[in-house]
Amino acid sequence: MSKPISALNHASYDGIARIEECGLQGMITLRGDLSDKVVIKAATAATGQKMPGQREANVEGETGLCWMSPDELLVLVPYAEVEAKLAEINKALDGTHSLAVNVSDARAVFRVSGPYAREVMGKVSPVDLSKEAFQPGQIRRSRLAQVAGAFWMDGADTFRVVCFRSAADYAFKLLKVAAQPGSEVGVY
Amino acid sequence: MSTRLANQGRLIDRSKQVTFTFNGTSMQGYEGDTLASALLANDQMMVGRSFKYHRPRGIVASGAEEPNALVGLGEGSRFEPNQRTTTTELFNGLKAISQNHWPSLEFDIGVVNNSLARFLPSGFYYKTFIHPKPFWKHVYEPFIRQSAGLGKAPDKDSRDADTYEHFYAFVDVLVIGGGVAGLQVARVAAKSGAKVMLIEQTAHWGGRAPVDGGTIDGEPVDKFVEQTVSELEAMDNVTLRLRCMGAGVYDHGYVLGYERISDHKPGAQGPRHRLWRIRAKQVVTATGAIERPLSFAGNDVPGVMLASAMRDYVVNWGVTPGERVIVATNNDDAYRTAITLKKAGVDVLRILDARASAGPLADEARALGIRVDPGKAVAKVKGGKRVKKVAICNQDGVGGAREEVECDAVAMSGGWSPVVHMWSHCGGKLIWDEDNAHFRPDPERPPLGANGEGFVVAAGSANGPLSLGDVLSDAQAAGEAAAKGAGFKPKSAKAPLGEATEEAPMQPVWLMPANADIQLRMKSWLDFQNDVKVSDVQLAAREGYESVEHTKRYTTLGMATDQGKLSNINGLAILADALEAEIPKVGTTTFRPPYTPISMGAIGGEARGEVFQPIRRTPMYDWHDRNGADWEPVGQWRRPFTYVRPGETVHDAVNREVKNTREKLGLLDASTLGKLIVKGPDAGKFLDMLYTNMMSTLKPGKCRYGLMCSENGFLIDDGVVARIDEDTFLCHTTTGGAERIHAHMEEWLQTEWWDWKVYVANVTEQYAQIAVVGPNARKVLEKLGGMDVGKEALPFMEWRDGQIGGFDCRAYRISFSGELSYEIAVPASQGMAFWNALLEAGKEFGVMPYGTECLHILRAEKGFIMIGDETDGTVIPQDLGLHWAISKKKVDFLGKRAQERAHMTDPDRWKLVGLETVDGSVIPDGAYAVGEGVNANGQRNMIGRVTSTYYSATLGQGIAMGLIKHGPDRMGEVVEFPGTDGKSYKAKIVDPVFYDKDGEKQNV
Amino acid sequence: MLILNCPYCGVDAEESELSAGGEAHIKRHGPGSSEDEFHDYLFTRENPKGVHFERWRHSNGCGKWFHAARCTNTLEVFGTYPAQTTEPPKQIRDAITAKRPGWSWREFS
Predict the structure, then answer these.
(1) CA within 20 to 30 Å of C9's CA: A77, B31, B305, B581, which one?
(2) What does UniProt give as the signal peptide span (chain B) (predicted)?
């Protein structure tokens, strides 16, 4: 295999927020009954993270569990470990109706950071991003202007944003426009 | 003449001079001026011409309601027509040009329409441009196009230099309008703990109350405004926004706010406009009221102005529109203008009050030495480009027995109408207020929100009350109601006490004088921008237009860019009178958003230039782009149509790719094809329902081509299904089908067969998939080395996991070209490297990438159908001769029942055949086949159509597929396809498989 | 622009996150059904001014299909509920009755 290359190869931009493509992130889509102990065990054992409830994201760095829908988790693991983790999960789920599949290369991940990060995201997603409404530990699937996307917060002013790999170029340019100098809204 | 006064001007800073140009003439104003106030300060009374008659037009208002004073602003990539001078803040270097005249504002040819006015009544266009028919295209249409449109469109080569954005905001209470009412509402709501946003369209808080005078809690109004604003600014739960107009109120508390961030400082960093997409639990419309003009002859002459606007110019900007002014009114409020003018040192010659008596303000005016004439009216204003004289008559008459008085400006007031637009946008109903002769919000019938309760509250003069005291107590109540409606408990507090001089009742005056003769009525304007007069509306009524909506469209009343803010009530009162009906029975026209025109840029937001729409890219996009890709949009994807080399045409390039792939080795980026994982104990059963053929019998390791239909029986997608293991399938879809078919599968699983144990995941973009096609396909893979791709190890229609050239991959032995072919899927992050490896290893085998056109030709030569070419949403598999792919064993699959319907089994349905042109030419795309006889319209009967048509470099001639009536039974017949180029194309009906009929080439 | 609460992920989603999916609670007719049954299944739809039951998908969100009971006239939303049902649940029907006594829609009331 040759050196894997992410969609935008760590492109970045500094405006009223910093926009960076994070490079490759190991991701596994896990579908199953999220109340099933076997499923919970498989997910938590692979990541060391707590099982997330509705719209929760328990993420630390490159490892985590994100609630995507009542029967879907997004499992985050370091890119280099994804095949091993997938095998581990599949083994744990043997005999349980479920679907675990590597989607690491199907996605692009961005970091949007800085004091105006909430405002930048508030320009592209129809979501209440005030501090009262959205906090680290939550995940939101929505749209980034015209493409589907999901995001959570790593800290007080940092978002991690996921979209399809093919839309990475659009999403990056979109976030650049939203973060252009002089575009502070002044509400969050 | 209009001029700057020595004092007054609460909004201007006389220490900061600003230079601007109007029609190239340099002029001076002050910081804080609007373009309108600055033009008046320079005695620029005439600022444009009207749309239809090209009559001279001056400034008539002082805010968003201005119908006349529209100009072209800026230049080049920042030019914008139809900008209201009254809402344009002045800045250094502003460039404005007047519109709707040629060759100049002062001397205009189009004014000839004015002399022809009596021949251009309402409905003129409808009545005139009907006959003779041939005139339409060559005479009427060019004429109408020439005269259509107000202002000049920006130069076609200039691109808007600015950027725009949207912002999503979520609040408990949104208050639209930052006058004293809006401020008080915001304060009450905010104190309850609600999250409040207050938006004001102008650059200043306080609205017009500071101009009108009076006191609040014993202090001047300005002080109340200042205190309230600083109180609100200090609250964390309040967002204040100036230069942000409430543009529209929509369902479920959705409101658009139009923020003009840098119109007053062009070129500033950041977006020019921001469209706020606000969700509010409660919306309060504190949008104020607009003064109505009076309908008298010559009310459109520059220098005739709304009384309140004239007062604004004096108080806010220290400008008087005239030196000798006559005031005409039907209410007490206009007396304030007379008093203000007089106190500013302007001669006020008369107050013509249509009523018999007035309130205490009249005494104050008289005490200042102003002559008040009760029962009097303007018979006619004389003057062309500016006011020269006013002819005075009795209101109660036909306009005779006139006295003429020389003057240079007329202030008029016909009463006040609440701004009910925001209330009405989403269904709020109105009631007619007899006392004030206006429509105001009916509190019993507000717009309803998601919970079925009202979500809009009107406050202040937007709700009807006009006196300061009533406005503030109404605002207090509205703030409390909104807080409650949003789920908060308002703190009990007393409303601020507003005190102003009491007013006597107004008296409706819809025509001045009351029985004005036709000569006067033909010069009494209702709609200044669109040139609609009292006589036009009366004519419409005589011609049978009873509905106000029809009259509006027939006369164009209220259809100009100001949307009838000044003209609507006056117009419908005239209509009601002509119909001898009551005003509320006639009703209003519909109030539609936006309140005033908003920029296209703001509507589009960020979606322009590179982010106009998402362009989806495969991992090899950059390589394609560097190597001559002629891009073809396929949904949101961009795929190379062909790779054009220097010196080649697109056609040459396609032919080269076709021949090379057939003879040597071609590479296709097939990454865009959908890949859906379907897994579970019921996966086979599920796919048997989705595909027309049997998938549950497929053995792991093997592939099968399948067709998908909708419940209507029509083909919706096709592709190769690979069985990965007992529980798992991988379904390939078309490029455009990945998301659609994924959604289709989820829909059936979630909404019909929710007890079936199946999970689906879309892994389309996890892989870069490359088709390696041609006689040398195996050679290049063997050279790269790794898994066995030989005939026995990987037979046709099977797949294997392994490594090739060191890349982890899944190799499918499938062919959409009829050649020896593999599709190799590698992780997307390896796609570019694998593509390069294939190119490098393939050099000695004549490797050459090919694009989608070559793909299409290769498949057409083999008679393979393409979803979207052979299908169009009305085609069933049986039409395409695909019976072999429709299971007869299965009891049920989506589309099966539909395909049994009579229309579907009709032997006359058009069926797929191949078409070979007799002379080797290529049938035009979309051509229809014609047969014997003609239809009822005298057109030749159609018997079929082309679905795919290409030049085949392999066969050296045009080939096509088409759907032809009884086609398969007519082999060898020649049918005719008339082209739009005047030629007729003749083609022989043949088998759709043109090349390698026995499939020997792919199975080696 | 409507807001509907997605019963799966709990989000009050605005319409731009949703896709409309037509009428709810349509019974599928397949092979073996009569011409009339099949015709009605494919083409016959309610068009009420008032109470209506619809299918929606939280497409720019959790991806789940759900049902909404709402008034086509006032746009009042009586409730949303999961799609895995062949008829409106009782609490939804009760919520409608509270607001629109005497309502009926197809065989439901």
Answers:
(1) A77
(2) none
